[in-house]
Structure formats: C-alpha cells, structure tokens
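Go through this chain for my students:
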Amino acid sequence: MVFTGFALAAALLSSSDSVDPRIPMPSKADWKDPGYLKLVWIQSPNRSPRPEDTVIDTVVVHSTVINTLQLTTEVFQRGEPDNKNPVSAHFTIGRDGSIVQNVSTFEKAWHAGVSVGPAGIKNLNNSSVGIELVNLNDGKDPYPEAQIQALCGIIAEMKRRFPIKYIVSHEYIAVPVGRKNDPKGFPWEKLKYLGLPMYYGQKMD
C-alpha cells in the first residue's frame, strides 16, 4: 500500500487501521522506491514498547551510511537471533524523497543506542522518533532537496502528533562523545523554519 499527500499524514499518525497498512519486504527483483513524498510501511521486527507515560519530545536525524533505501530496509529486517546488533528507525528517507516506515511512532525503534538528550534524558530510544536519511555520511554525498522536504514533512507531522521540543543529530546525543558522527554534512539551516531548537555536531563536555 502506497501513501501520498493527506494520506501520507494519516499514515504517519495512525497506530492501527481496519486495513493493515504494512507490506512484506519485497524481493530484490520486485523492489521499487515509492517516490517523492510517498510512503510504504515495511515493518521491522526490531522494535519494543515505549515505557508507560513516555513523553515523545525529540526527533533524531541519522544518515544510513548505506547507499540505497532497499539495502537499508533489508538491514532493518534482520532481527535476533541472526543479527547480534539489530537496529531500526521509525522512518527511512531515500534521496528522491521516498519514505519507508519501519516502526510505528507509538513503539520504540532501536536507532539511538547509548544516548543522552539536550535536557539530560538518557536512552533516547524511549522518547524519540528516529529518521534515517540515505546518505554515505562521508561529508561529500549531498542531501537532495527532495529528501530534505520529505524530512521536513515528517517532522511537521510529528510536531502535530507529539510535544516535540528538540531536533538532534545522532552525533550530538551519542555516548560516549565521538561514538557517532552522523548525519555528516547535513544542511541544518534548512530545518530552521520548523521553529524547534536544534542540537548537532559534537557535544562539548
């Protein structure tokens, strides 16, 4: 099932539907990126319940270091026990603005690792929405405008659904300092219009 426009907003916010919006992981031969601002939900097994009464107030922006939306989605399908370090994010955005939802925002995705947020809250997986951008994270691979617009659209929807207070980079919140450096080279100024405090770069001790 592919979502776009107002249907995309509804899909981002829904926790359940009479029709299950999720689809199985396509084969390599059948894979097709959904397209600009279109979303498919390919459920990752790497998820868990958020702690009761958790306030979801942070968006964490990552880069995949993996070169395609398909390969990133495949990695997020690898759960335990086959994968010793299973990971996921709530959303992954391709270079053309295609979106794959990996985990419901009402559940915890496994994207931040050991982390501390701007307000000193630990384990940001509990209280954040994780968004991956397909990018090699070498500081040279660009973040196309279509990808940035899709990111802005998701964050805007998260602001409407949750009391989002912060946008942070994975680099900023990772513990120990220097454990992560993504999303390297991201143009943060393009998110300023969202009106949220942004924390990125390496946190100073």
Strands lie at 39-41, 47-49, 58-63, 91-93, 99-101, 107-109, 128-133, 166-169, 198-199. Residues 13-17 have pLDDT under 50 and may be disordered. The helical segments are 6-13, 69-76, 145-161, 170-173. The two ends are 46 Å apart (CA to CA).
